[in-house]
Amino acid sequence: MEKARNVDIRQFYREDLGVHSEELLDKLEAVSQAVTLQKGEILNKKGERQTMLPFLIEGMMRCVTLDSEGKEKTLGFTMNRGDVVLSNMDLTGCHISTDQALVPSTLILLPIDYVLQNMKDEPEVIRVYQEQIVKWGMIYQSRAVSLSQGDATERFEWFCKEYPGMIDMVNNRYIASFLGITPVTLSRLRHGVATKVGREKRTDEE
What we know:
Blueprint: E1 2-3, H1 9-16, H2 22-31, E2 33-37, E3 42-44, E4 52-58, E5 61-66, E6 72-78, E7 98-101, E8 105-111, H3 112-117, H4 123-148, H5 152-162, H6 172-179, H7 183-205
Helix pairs in contact: 1-2, 6-7
């Protein structure tokens, strides 16, 4: 992990998170840091405490853990600007999964201690923190529901809508693990969709 260049931290808090107090923007800019992770680099490891609130600026992250057999299990992806990259945590605030960059990725890190220490004096800090945690919770819940329902085809179609374009950028093994299917099944589904799109395109041209 290295310091990111040409990242306007102040602009991110103002335009993406809606912070308007110039005094608070000064403080957030002072305590936050912008970092770049290379492909395959780890942001948070399983067992480490959550000390930062990481916001994705650009790139793509995946949350991964090991199952009972010691095999990797992809739990989720983050690819939208402004989304919080949060692993699953236990009651002590320690990660029970790992966050890894799938491509070179840039993030802004806000110390959680700063948020907790300034909640009483800075209402906007409370708002930003609560909004991001609620947003993350809703994404997590929606994802869990979608993955628990439907057959392989329905889950694949949901994935393509939820993460547009990712199917062509991410290792098939990661996506198959996330959807709870085998790489062979994923390849079959991809081929089926491509064939369907091809037929529809020819029909439109006729």
